[in-house]
């Protein structure tokens, strides 16, 4: 039976294994993922017994904006609506009921997110990326 949880005390080895199947998340270090979880506002995970099979997380101010990150489902469980259920749990979460706008940064799986009501916005955005070698003084 598949269950869903908001707990943050996820076995990092299982989460890293799940990330291994996502091209945008390969190579993440255990320490970095541990810190990421500690600073994430909401975690939604899917479990088959004690096996982690799906994951998504949210950063938010709980009023105006929320950003959804790292939605991933184990390839063995894709096609079973687990990703849809993770997203529905996030979008309907009581703590997020006031949020006006959910942001999602992705250039793949557009059709999946459009089925959930997301629309592609032709807006100008900016990003600043920290170089691994350079640091601000």
CATH class: Alpha Beta
Placed side by side, the strands forming the largest sheet appear as: 1-2-3-4-5
Unreliable stretches: none
Query: Would you report the number of β strands?
Result: 5
Largest β sheet strand count, sense and barrel closure? 5 strands, mixed
Brief overview:
With 137 residues, the protein is α+β, with helices and mostly antiparallel strands. The chain has 4 helices and 5 strands, in the order E-H-H-E-E-E-H-E-H. It has one domain (2-115): Gcn5-related N-acetyltransferase (GNAT) (Aminopeptidase).
Blueprint of the fold:
Layout: E1 2-5, H1 12-20, H2 30-38, E2 42-48, E3 51-60, E4 65-73, H3 82-91, E5 101-104, H4 110-115
Parallel strand pairs: 4-5
Antiparallel strand pairs: 1-2, 2-3, 3-4
Mind explaining what this structure looks like?
25% of the residues lie in helices and 25% in strands. It is α+β, with helices and mostly antiparallel strands. It has one domain: Aminopeptidase (3-Layer(aba) Sandwich), CATH 3.40.630. A five-stranded mixed sheet has the order 1-2-3-4-5. The protein is globular. The termini are far apart.
